[in-house]
Write a structure and sequence with these properties.
The chain is an alpha+beta fold. The chain is 29% helix and 37% strand.
Length: 204
């Protein structure tokens, strides 16, 4: 009877040690998981054209500004003889945090409307990342009219339809707007549906 007790206690001790080791590993993974860097999309590829009075603007500088939680990056390209320009995709490695951070993608035309001035033709600002398929669609074929008034468009959330997505402020039109943006009719339908829900809740 006494002979197996030390072995039994030893087995219990080993078992407890294994349990504590697993728990410690899981806690460590949880804690240090927040310290690991993850890659986010800072900007998709941008394919665009700059026009003025619907005519291509050639050999003009287009500047891209990227912002993330205090970090800024700039790059620029020159339009070709058809007014087209291109920016490659940009990613950023960041540490996950417990709070939201600001992220933005902006496009400027340099030395317009006059020397040493910059005309912002596109701005997208949201929180945390730009990993939206609708953003990829929008930026894949963008046409910016320098003489246009800036307008606001509402992106669709294609990953989770019905959920919110960022707004765009720009002087541009988009070849894939039907896929990526809400039309005026769809926005009006959403407004009417919201009013209906509110009226129903209030008992009218």
């Amino acid at each position: 009877m006494l002979g197996w007790q030390p072995l039994n206690l030893k087995a219990i001790a080993v078992g407890l040690g294994l349990i504590l080791s697993v728990l410690a590993t899981n806690v460590e993974a949880g804690v240090f998981g927040w310290l690991k860097r993850t890659e986010i999309q800072w900007s998709p590829e941008v394919h665009g054209v700059i026009v003025e009075h619907d005519k291509p603007v050639v050999n003009i500088e287009v500047k891209r500004r990227l912002y993330y939680d205090g970090k800024e990056r700039y790059d620029s390209v020159t339009t070709d003889d058809t007014g087209h320009f291109y920016f490659p995709r940009k990613t950023l490695k960041v540490r996950r945090v417990l709070f939201d951070v600001s992220i933005a993608l902006e496009l400027y035309v340099v030395d317009y409307p006059s020397k040493s001035e910059e005309d912002q033709v596109f701005r997208l600002s949201t929180l945390n990342d730009l990993d939206y398929r609708s953003v990829d669609f929008v930026m894949s074929d963008i046409r910016c009219e320098l003489t246009a008034e800036a307008k606001v468009d509402e992106l669709k959330n294609l990953e989770i339809p019905g959920n919110s997505a960022p707004n765009i402020r720009s002087k541009c039109t988009f070849a894939h707007a039907e896929i990526a943006l809400y039309s005026d009719e769809e926005i009006e339908q959403q407004r009417l549906e919201l009013e209906r829900i509110i009226d129903k809740q209030e008992g009218f």
